[in-house]
Amino acid sequence: MSTFAFAVGVPTHNRSGDIIDCFFPAPLKEPSGDLAAAIGAHSTPGTHIMRPGDLTELARHAAGLGIDTMLEADRPLVVVRLTEDADITTTPEAFLKLHLISHRLALPNTLNLEGIFANLATVAWTSRGAVDPADLTALQLEARLRDEYFEVMSVDKFPKMTNYVIPSGVRIADSSRIRLGAFLGEGTTVMPSGAVNFNSGTIGPNMVEGRVSQGVILGEDSDLGGGASTMGTLSGGGEIKVSLGRNCLVGANGGTGIPLGDRCSIEAGLYITAGTLVSVIDEYGDTVHTVKARELAGGSDMLFIRHSHTGEVQCRTNRNAIALNEQLHAHN
Amino acid sequence: MSTFAFAVGVPTHNRSGDIIDCFFPAPLKEPSGDLAAAIGAHSTPGTHIMRPGDLTELARHAAGLGIDTMLEADRPLVVVRLTEDADITTTPEAFLKLHLISHRLALPNTLNLEGIFANLATVAWTSRGAVDPADLTALQLEARLRDEYFEVMSVDKFPKMTNYVIPSGVRIADSSRIRLGAFLGEGTTVMPSGAVNFNSGTIGPNMVEGRVSQGVILGEDSDLGGGASTMGTLSGGGEIKVSLGRNCLVGANGGTGIPLGDRCSIEAGLYITAGTLVSVIDEYGDTVHTVKARELAGGSDMLFIRHSHTGEVQCRTNRNAIALNEQLHAHN
Amino acid sequence: MSTFAFAVGVPTHNRSGDIIDCFFPAPLKEPSGDLAAAIGAHSTPGTHIMRPGDLTELARHAAGLGIDTMLEADRPLVVVRLTEDADITTTPEAFLKLHLISHRLALPNTLNLEGIFANLATVAWTSRGAVDPADLTALQLEARLRDEYFEVMSVDKFPKMTNYVIPSGVRIADSSRIRLGAFLGEGTTVMPSGAVNFNSGTIGPNMVEGRVSQGVILGEDSDLGGGASTMGTLSGGGEIKVSLGRNCLVGANGGTGIPLGDRCSIEAGLYITAGTLVSVIDEYGDTVHTVKARELAGGSDMLFIRHSHTGEVQCRTNRNAIALNEQLHAHN
Q1: Is the ipTM of this complex over 0.85?
Q2: Considering its fold, how many domains does chain C have in total?
Q3: Which residues of B touch C162 (CB under 8 A)?
């Protein structure tokens, strides 16, 4: 039986014994060769809580998974082996899939995340780790009485990515804005007003000063200006999945509800939704036609502005791009 | 003498002996029955610092206030009993009122908060708790020399809510954006760009990706899009107090300087201030009249857009809503 | 040899022995008198790692630098003495210059920061201090196995200012949004959506709810509304350096790509870029001319709006201001 994904990690349980958090130092996707054989021989499909002693054979045959270090600690470990990319049915599976994306082993929108919300509890992420919100008040009072540090950083289904993985070559001004399950490509900088949701991200290099919504991907060398918005499918964006191709710029406080191809810009302060009526202007300054922005979805070489004299939303482009974009939509 | 509010808590003092922070695990508003009688019999109106030994009688008669746990610790406690909702005159009173709102015992705009700024010191909220900013440099140097953790999360009169109370059924991506004194109704989700000030909040369920300014309330099922703004009375919004009724949506990077009734929308990227000139359009597409947005304050069933072809700000509504909204303002 | 800047501090090294962080409790700029003489006599120009024992003479002659406390700790210290404001060539020099600005010893844009990016490593700022990102995974796993707190707050070249200096008379809602090297004048309040980059800041008093980009300064009594943007030279703002004079307001979700003089306002939601075509309207309501906003750079007494009926971007001003602003540009 093949292995789609595999990881050994450190679970956190709440007081009822439910797993509410998992840390996988070295998850694997579609392992091959000796590693795949070792996993196939020494693990069982599914999610399992095991004692370190149960993993010595696996550790001997599968180096590089960080298992050795974990075996030295006398505490239960969680082992997840997925044979296919099926719907999520356990909390550790959900954490494993989020790890895969943040470890750059899977691009956003390529994993089956069905069931993820149902399998992630709302957790208080605190200076004492993952805590069930129901247990908080008592712990907070105890800490206060003892003058001990107890900080609640967030109360959410998704933890911050940087407490699980820091991808190489990235800069993150404020880690509380990047959820586990974000994909940050090499050369990505996320400024304080930037935010990246799970199952979304950047190919890199990119400058992110705005909000990358769930499902959204930024192509190489594209920038999202300060406070800029990408409309997510979870947040009322409807059917259209937003993305930016290469060399795009959404200006500060701008936004897009349509996917953009390559070399597109939206001027600062302008929000293009799928329903925005746009006058398409060619390189001679002539208005070619007026369309809803959704008709321009995926097109390249487009500059969107709101004319500062007439208030008209315009897409400035050229005849070549118009022809190509029409072809794009003819094929849809 | 009746009790308007009551709480026993853990105070933090600065080096001069002033109280700069109070944690009340179980504040009460307008207690009744045996509890009210016990409080009346065993406490004195006002703000008092007491030793645990002074509270044994009260603890015996008033269960559920977390006093038992506090009595076990050998440290001074703070007791606040307010007989009426008077102006704030002590720091513990200020903290108590903020607790009442965040514990959902009082809605925003229903408590007398006069005097709150004068009674809250600017405090450094750190990994060692509340610290007087004047004491910081020495503490930071000591910590550095000992390689000890010392983090300053904020320097503000108001601490973050989640270190005092986590209301049930909420999700908060980044707790540093919710001040103590925020009211988060059941089913509220606050995303990384969301923020909720003290004395403001959500009835729930709500999705908050924008800024809920002081005094602002969001009704049931209303959403504030990413980066959306609600104009606060503290921040130059003037006399008008902003609120959203039920089933409203302020789109991403939009904003409102007027209160909205039910089922209103403001499109992404559009900011409606009280002075914005708005063309009111009925269901037949006819312009009924042009008014300043403040004339539409509180109206329902309104969709605000900036026409993408003409740049005109429009309120799309219907004859029924127009008639009702005119009545609303006739009664003002 | 004169001293341009001087400081003794606590360095952090990575596992390779490189300095990745410095804390200077009491940096000096252009010291004079006895202090300058003591520094001249007992220190050597450049960046040096020294043992406390090497600094006893300096400590005896130069009080007020926090050296005494540092001498009691048995750990290496870092001493930086700059004889002139030359390009940055070491990490401690970079940290010293950032400290100078945040300590209000140098205004933004007055120090030579050439070389700062090359001399600041990307560091993980964690609950265990500054950590080389390459060392993180092993540390995170160890902490997890021991149930110890290990939080990664940011991964960046610049740390948060408040862990190094808290200037007097400021309020900061969320310290993760203020980089070391920010200048916050007395009376500055930074709200949760506010952010201040290095080498930028506020003269004070100011209310900052938006983003102060690198190089940008806000004059006395000027406010940056919620989510408002100032275009930075690092982020595609081009040649023009943005600043706000006194008594300006950039409304919520607005923005500016040009410097503003005194008493200017940009209405909420409006973004003025250098290329925005603006109709200049005098006090009689007459359109004087239509110009690109860059022609208005630095002018005073201007109110920018987008007309809500026609969509036209207007600068409302008066004949006096127009004359003065024309003079301003005639002299450029």
Answers
A1: yes
A2: 3
A3: 124, 152-155
